[in-house]
DNA sequence: GTCAATGCAAAATCTTTGCATTTTT
DNA sequence: AAAAATGCAAAGATTTTGCATTGAC
């Protein structure tokens, strides 16, 4: 499988866009942290360690580009920040974003893969004629540790 | 059942807060449009028709208050705007937010009630020990009309 | 060399805050 | 009369944009 970086470079060339250090650095920053959910500012800080001259505007522009190319997903975990993460979909396959479990105790965000939503999607299709293409699920609650902590008290 | 407005007034009094025209007007604006998903600015414009002197800051402050009291839900439908809607939960009952179906064709947002997620929640509980308290589901796709339109072409 | 991308600073959005004044209780 | 809420304008925060310069092809 070609890694995301190669895929990105390919897509750029296909579109007549240029493969710049900044663009590659930004994708790399995200790629190295697959389960982090980074804000634009955080990405900026990370890339700055390697390339101190990069501008925040470039980060925003590249993020937008990556989202359009479906290489990253835009997230809203309810804390008021817009976050991004590397997409985990297999190329042509229907983009099935994973689900997020947000712990109300420690604030950690876990991810969860599962296609149990297919049943739900089918029901929606039948009853409402709505054709589902993609979905996003957030569950709020308490992670194992925090749940245990709460029971003790 | 006491309507939302009375409930709001009660809660305000319980907390030693004051029942002002502005607060009631804002709740009313939301209550009269149960399935709209309004932005702060839109709420401001609506209330301004009745009470032209209201300030945007008051709208923001009241929205925050209503959200804290669980009378309204904060939504993020992926269009970059923060939106609000009247909650539909029955008092003490577990808050079960309804799901949103977002049409990629016409942009309309439909709502969908269903507890098919219970299965998913149970599975998460078993496999990961994560205790789910609340959830939020967004489905992206094409509504009946837009799906038909797309098949024709 | 050409055209796109970058960095910077300024502008545009959206939301919050401080404070004098008004309103509720 | 006391305390809280309001409106306004200013300040914050986040994201976008214009433009001269730089870099990829």
TrEMBL record, chains A, B:
The keyword Cell membrane does not apply. It holds the Pfam family FUR. Keywords: DNA-binding, Iron, Metal-binding, Repressor, Transcription, Transcription regulation, Zinc. Its cofactor is Mn(2+); Fe(2+); Zn(2+). Belongs to the Fur family. This is Fur family transcriptional regulator, ferric uptake regulator. PANTHER family: FERRIC UPTAKE REGULATION PROTEIN (PTHR33202:SF7), ZINC UPTAKE REGULATION PROTEIN (PTHR33202). CDD domains: Fur_like. The keyword Transcription applies. GO terms for biological process: negative regulation of DNA-templated transcription; regulation of secondary metabolite biosynthetic process. InterPro entries: FUR (IPR002481), Fur_C (IPR043135), WH-like_DNA-bd_sf (IPR036388), WH_DNA-bd_sf (IPR036390). One of its GO terms (molecular function) is transcription cis-regulatory region binding. It comes from Anaerocolumna jejuensis DSM 15929. Fe cation binds at residues 97, 135. Binds 1 Mn(2+) or Fe(2+) ion per subunit. Zn(2+) binds at residues 103, 106, 143, 146.
């Amino acid at each position: 499988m070609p890694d995301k970086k190669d895929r990105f470079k390919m897509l750029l060339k296909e579109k007549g866009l240029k493969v710049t250090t900044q663009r590659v650095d930004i994708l790399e920053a995200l790629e190295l942290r697959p389960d982090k959910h980074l804000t634009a500012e955080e990405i900026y800080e990370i890339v700055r360690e390697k390339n101190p001259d990069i501008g925040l505007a470039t980060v925003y522009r590249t993020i937008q580009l990556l989202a359009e190319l479906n290489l990253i997903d835009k997230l809203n975990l309810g804390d008021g920040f817009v976050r991004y993460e590397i997409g985990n979909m297999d190329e042509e396959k229907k983009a099935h974003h994973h689900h997020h479990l947000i712990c109300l105790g420690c604030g950690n965000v876990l991810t969860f893969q599962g296609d149990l939503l297919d049943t739900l999607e089918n029901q929606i299709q039948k009853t409402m004629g709505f054709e589902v293409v993609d979905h996003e699920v957030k569950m709020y609650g308490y992670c194992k540790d925090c749940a245990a902590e709460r029971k003790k008290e």
